[in-house]
Amino acid sequence: MTTIIDIPDVATTGPGAVSRFTARHAAMMPTFAAIAILLLLFAGAEAFLRGDFITGSNISALLLDNAYLLVMAVGMTFVIVTGGIDLAVGSVMAFTGIWLAKLLADGTSVAVAIPVMLIGGALIGLLVGVLVQYFNVQPFIASLAALFLARGLAFVVSLSSIKVEEPAILWMQSTRFKLGDWYITPTGILALAVVGIGAFVMHSTRFGRTVYAVGGNEQSARLMGLNVARTKVLVYVISGFCAGLAGLVLTAYSGAGYPRNGIGTELDVIAAVVIGGTLLTGGRGYVLGSMVGVFVYGTINTIINFKGADQSWTRIIVGVLLLLFIVVQRVIVARAERRHN
Amino acid sequence: MKAIVNHRLFWPATALVVLVAINAIAQPRFLAITMRDGKLYGALIDILRQSAPLMLVALGMTIVIATRGIDLSVGAIMAVSGAVALTIIDSSGSPDAVATVGIAVIVAVLVAMVLGLWNGFLVSVLGIQPIIATLVLMLAGRGVALLITGGKITTVNSAPLKYLASGYVLILPVAFFIWVAAVAIVSAIERRTALGVLTESVGINPEASRLAGVRSRGIIWGAYIASGILAGAAGILAASDIRAADANAAGLWIELYAILAVVLGGTSLMGGKFSIAGTVIGVLFVTTLESTVVFLGIPPAQKPVFFGAAVIVVVLLQAPRVHEWGRKVGSTFRKQPTDSKTEVEVAA
Amino acid sequence: MPADTEVPPIVEMQGITIQFPGVLALDNVDFFLRSGEVHALMGENGAGKSTLIKALTGVYAIDSGAITVAGEARTFGSTADAQAAGISTVYQEVNLCANLSVGENVMLGHEPRGATGIDWRRTHDRAADHLSALGMDIDTKSILSSHPIAIQQLVAIARAMVLDAKVLILDEPTSSLDRDEVALLFGVVRDVKSKGVAVLFVSHFLDQVYEIADRITVLRNGKLVGEYPAAELPREQLITKMIGRELENLEAIAGTAQREIDRTAAPVISARGIAKRGFLEPADIDVYAGEVVGLAGLLGSGRTELVRLLYGANRADAGVVEVDGAPAKITSPRHAIDHRIAFSSEDRRGEGIIADLTVAENIVLGIQARRGWLRRVRRTEADAVVAEYIAALGVRPANPQMLAGNLSGGNQQKVLLARWLATAPKLIVLDEPTRGIDVGAKADIQAKVAELSEQGLAVIFISSELEEVLRLAQRVIVLRDRHHVGTLDSSEIDLDGLIDYIAKSEEGSAA
After folding, report:
1. Which residues contact A29 (CB under 8 A, 6 or more apart)?
2. What subunits make at least 3 CB pairs under 8 angstroms with B?
3. Percentages (nearest 5) of helix, strand, coil residues in chain C
C-alpha cells in the first residue's frame, strides 16, 4: 500500500471552508439565487403594499392558486434535468381535466375516473418518451406533437366547459384545514406531497441519480452501465402523469373542466423551473428549487393583481427574469469551461 | 441535379396532391373556381389567400432553421406588429388614408425588425441556445403587445388595411401576390447572392465554415432579422384579416405550424441545406389540411389532433430507425454491416 | 504466442482483422495482456491502436480472429459486454458525470441502499475507501467538475476498481496532465498493477512509456510489428519501428528540398514567442516565400497547436507575429485570410470539408467567404476555377456536383487544397495532408506542394511521415512536448539523423 496522497481541494483564494462549500454545492447556487429573489420579492411587496402582503392568508393563497403549476413543475424538473423539454404539459392538463369532468358527468365513479385520466396523461408522456428515445426525435418536436394532439383531444372530449358536481372533487378544493390565519386545502397538500416525493426520488433513488447522470453526460452514463433508455422514457411519463395530476387539481380549483385551460402554461412551468435553478442544458436542478420558482411566479402574479395592473405584465416580467437567469447561467458555464481548458 | 430535386420535393409534392385529391373526392365543390366581378373565388383560391401569413413566417423560419437555430417568437412578433400598426391607424385622424396605413405598416415592420435583431443578438453574440433565446420573446412579446393595445382588442375601420388581406389585384387575392413576392425576394437574396450557400455551410459545419473564413456571426444574426421582418409583415396581414389587433390570439402557435411546414418541405431541423420551394409546398399542405378539417365538418378546435398526428408521421418518416426497418424489410438477404463501422472514419 | 511466461495472458487477441469501407484497419493482429503488468500499445496515427482498443471494449465488431478473456472465448456486441467481462476503460475525455460528486461517480449504479433510499453516508464512506485504497484522499462530496482533469481520471480509475476490473485500459491518459499529475497517476497505476490488474497503456509520450510500461507492442499501418519487453527495446529502435521506412514506391520528387531560398527579404510570416497556456510553450518560426518549412515531432508535440495559433484558429496568449515584415494581429481565421494565409486542418472531415455541399461549392467556398455574401462568384468563373483544380489535382471522380462527403479521404484532401489554392494565398499551412489516404493521392499532393513552392508559395508542412517532411522541406522545425526544441537544415540531415534527433530530444531531461 502506497502512502496516502492528499489531493488538495481546488485551488481557490479564500478560507478553506468556503472553497469546500462551493466545491460541494456549486450546483445549488442558482437555487440559492432563486430563494434570494423570492425573499426580495416578499420584502419588496411588503414595503410596496405597506405591510399588507406577508400575511398567513396571502401566503396560503399563494399555494392554493399555484398548486397546479407546482405539480407540473415537479414533472418538468425531471425532464429538464435530463436535458429534454416537455411542451405538452399545458395541453395534457387541459385534456385530462376535461376528460375527468366528462367522465364524472357521464356517471363514472370517481374511483375509476381519476386513475383513468391520470393514466391518460402518463400515456401521452410515454408517446413523447418513445419518440425521443427510440426514434431520435428532438424533445422539442416530440412534445410539440403531443401538445397538438392533447389540445385537439381536449376539444374532442368537449367543445365547451363541463361543470363538475362530484362532491369528492369539490371537497378537494373547498375544504380548508386552518391554523390561525393559515390554511391549506387537500389540493395544496397533494401538491406539497408531489414535491416531497419528487425531491425524494431525485435525491435518494438510483433512478433519480440516473436522471442527473443522463443530464450531465449521457454517453458517460451509458458507459457507466446505467439504463439510460428507460430513464429517458420514464421522465416523460412522469411529466405526463404530473400534468394529469395538475388537471385534477385545476378542475377541482375551478369546479369545471375547460378545454381551453393551460394555453401557454407550459412556458410558465418552464420559466418557473429555470428560475428555480435548473439548467436548461441538463444535469443540474432541484425539485425544491422548482417550487421556489413557482412561488416566484405566483408572487409576481399576486403583486401585479394587487396593483390592479394588466395581467400581461406578469408574462413580461417573468420573461425578463428568465432571460436574466439564462444569461447568468451561460456566463457561469462559460467561465467554468474556460477554467478547465 | 434533377435527381436530387426530384427526390427532395417529390414526397412533399405528392403529399399535397394526395391531400387535395382526398378533398376533391370527399367534396367535389372543393375544386370549383368561379369568377365574379373579375375576381376568382373558390376553396383553392381561399387556400392561396389564407396561406399568406404562415408562408411569410415559414420563409423566415426556413432560414433560421438552416443555421441550426429556431425562432419561437414569431407569433409574439406578429402580435406586436399587429398591435403597433393598428394603434397607429386607430390613433391617427385618418384611418382610411393610404398614407396612414403605409406609415403604420412601415413602422410595424421596423419594430418587428428590431425584435429580430434582439433575437439575433442573443444567439449570435451571446451564444445563447436559440430555443431559449427566442423563448424569452415568446413569453414577453405578447405581454408587450397587450400593453400597446391597452389590454383591449383594437379594431379599426380602414379600407386600405382591409385591402391587404381581403382585396384583389386583377383576378387573384392581394395576399397571394404578397407571399409570392416574398418568396421571390427571399429566393433571389438567398440564391442569387452567396447568402444561401454560406448559410448552408454554417448550418452544416459551423467550425469548418469558421476556419474557411465565413462570417458566421453576421449570417446567423441576419437570419433572425429576416425572420423578424417576415413575422412583422405576417402580423399585419393577420390583423388586416380581422381588422383588429388581438394580442392574445394573433399568430398563436404559428411558430409550430411554421416548423411543421418547413420540416414537411424537406429542410432538416439539424440545419444545413434548406429548400424554399419545399417550404412553399409545406405551407400549402398545412393550409390545405386546415381547410380539409373544416370541410370535413370537424370543429376547428379539434384541428390540432390532425396536426399532432401529421407531425408524428413526418418525423417518424425522417427517423433513422424507420429507414433501417425499411432497409431491412427491403433486403432480407443482404448481409448488414454493423452500424458503428459504417459511420466512423479510421482516425488512429 | 509469447513463450516467456507460464501463466496464460488474461486477454488473448489472435488474428484480429477489421475492415472498413476502403481501409483495412487491422490486419491479422495478435495482442496479449498479462495480469499484474503494464503493457504499452504504440504506433502513429492510422496505425490501428484505437481500432484495436475499440475491438477489445466492444465498440467495434471484428471481422475475423478471436478474443479470449480469462480463458473464455468472448464476443463483444456492446460496451456493456466488455465491462461485464471485467474490462474497464479510462478515456482521455473522462467518461464520468462531471455534474455529480466524486463519491457518487465512484459508486454510481452501485450505491448502498437502506429503507429510505440511497444511504449517502455509506456511499461516501465506500467511495472514500476505494479512493484511499489507491492512495487518494479526496473530499468525496465535492463535485467532480471542481477538480482538474488529472484528478478526474484518478476517480475514473477508482471506479474501475469498484467494478472489479481485470483489465484497465488507459487511453492517452496523460495528454492534459503536467509532470506532478503524471507522477500521481503513475503511482496509482503501480498500485493497481500490484493488485494483479492488467493495464493497457496507450500514449505517444515515449518518456512516460519507458517509465511505466513493462512491455511494448508496436503497430504500424494496421499490422503488428512486434511485442517486446520494454527493457530490451531502445528508444531509436522503437521510433524506427513505429515510423519505419516507406515500403511503397513514391515518385522521387528530386531536388526540391535542395533549392536555394532567398532569405534577404522579410519572411512571409515570422513569429517570436508565440504561445498559449496549456497549449503551446513559446515558439519561434520564420517562413520565406518559396520555402517549405516542415514541422516534425511525435503526436502531441505541438505541431498542430503552433500552426493553429499562427492561423488564429486558437487565440495566442503571447507572442509577436509579423507578416511581410509588418506587425500583424491574427486572432481569428478571418484575420489570417485577410493576410492571405490558408490553413488545411488535420481533421479534414470535421474541420475542413462541408460534407453536404458539392465539390464545386466546397472549392469555391474560400473565394466566396473572402468576397462576402453579397458578391456571388459568377457561375462561369466558378465553373472555370472548379474545372481547373479538379484537373490540376486529379480529383476523382471528376464530378463537381458530387457531395464532398462521399469522396474518399484523399480526394477530400485535394478538394480542401483546391479551396485554398483558389484564393491565391501567400502562405499555406498543411496539417497532415497525407494522413489516411491512398498512395497515389499522397504522391499527387506532395508533387503539388513541391511545384507550388517552386512558384513562390510559402508552405508550412506537417506530417508524421518524416520522409515526406525531408523530401519537401528546406528547413525542419522539431517540436516535443509542446516545446520548440530545434530547427534543422534538411540538406544537413537524413531520415536516420532526424529520427535520432527526435529520439534524443525525447530522452532529454525536463518534461
Report:
1. A277, A332
2. A, C
3. 35, 25, 40
The CA radius of gyration of chain A, in Å to the nearest whole number, is: 21
Q: Report the DSSP pairing between strands C223-229 and C269-276.
A: unpaired
Domain that holds residue C285: 269-351+425-507
Q: Tell whether C188 and C275 lie within a shared domain.
A: no
C283 belongs to a structural domain: yes
Per-residue model confidence (pLDDT) at position C409: 76
In a domain, C157, yes or no: yes
Q: How confident is the model at residue C46 (pLDDT cuts 50, 70, 90)?
A: low
Q: Are residues C123 and C170 in the same domain?
A: yes
CATH code of the domain covering residue C193? 3.40.50.300
- pTM attached to this predicted model: 0.80
Q: ipTM for the complex?
A: 0.85
| C108 neighbourhood in chain A, CB within 8 Å | 209, 213, 224, 226
Structural domain includes residue C249:
no
Residue finishing a domain among C243, C258, C283: C243
Residues C119 and C202 in one domain: yes
Same domain, C236 and C275: no
Pairs of residues, one from chain B and one from chain C, whose beta carbons lie less than 8 Å apart: 113
Mutate to test the interface with B, among C19, C60, C373, C386 (most CBs of B within 10 A): C373
Q: How far is it, in rounded angstroms, from Cα B115 to Cα B83?
A: 14
Query: What is the mean predicted confidence (pLDDT) over B1-27?
Result: 74
pLDDT digits (tens, 9 = 90+) for A272-308: 998 898 988 889 999 999 999 999 989 888 888 777 7
For testing the chain A interface, which of B134, B311, B340 should be mutated: the one with the most A CBs within 10 Å?
B311
Instruction: For residue range A89-141, list pLDDT tens digits in order.
Output: 999 999 999 999 999 999 989 999 999 999 999 999 999 999 999 988 889 88
Note whether C232 and C308 are same-domain residues.
Answer: no
Q: What is the pLDDT of residue A4?
A: 45
Contacts of B312 in chain A (CB under 8 A): 131, 145, 149
Give the chain B residue whose CA is nearest to the CA of C363.
Answer: B212
pLDDT category at A226 given cuts 50, 70, 90 is confident
Asked if C293 and C237 sit in the same domain, the reply is: no
CA A286 to chain C, closest CA, distance in angstroms equals 13
For helices B216-242 and B52-66, give the axis angle rounded to 10 degrees. 170
Contacts 24+ apart (CB under 8 A), C238-247: C238/C42, C238/C206, C239/C206, C239/C298, C239/C499, C239/C502, C239/C503, C240/C499, C242/C42, C242/C43, C242/C44, C242/C47, C242/C218, C243/C44, C243/C464, C243/C465, C243/C466, C243/C499, C244/C220, C245/C467, C245/C495, C246/C465, C246/C467
Of A24, A200, A224, nearest to C117 by CB-CB distance is A200
* C60, C156: one domain: yes
Q: Going from the N-terminus, what domains does chain A have, and what CATH number goes with each?
A: 30-40+56-332 (1.10.3470)
Indicate the number of domains in chain C. 2
* Residue C131 confidence (pLDDT) above 70: yes
Position C460 scores a pLDDT of 94
Selection from B141, B133, B152 nearest residue B74 by Cα? B141
Cβ-contact B55, B238 below 8 angstroms: no
Q: What is the pLDDT of residue A112?
A: 94
Q: Are residues C444 and C347 in the same domain?
A: yes
Domain boundary, last residue among C225, C243, C261: C243
Residue closest to A254 by CA, chosen among A67, A56, A57: A67
Q: How far is A144 from chain B (nearest CA, A)?
A: 7
Per-residue model confidence (pLDDT) at position A11? 38
Q: Which residues of A touch C113 (CB under 8 A)?
A: 206
Cis bond before residue C397 (omega within 30° of 0): yes
In a domain, C253, yes or no: no
Position C148 confidence tier, pLDDT thresholds 50, 70, 90? confident
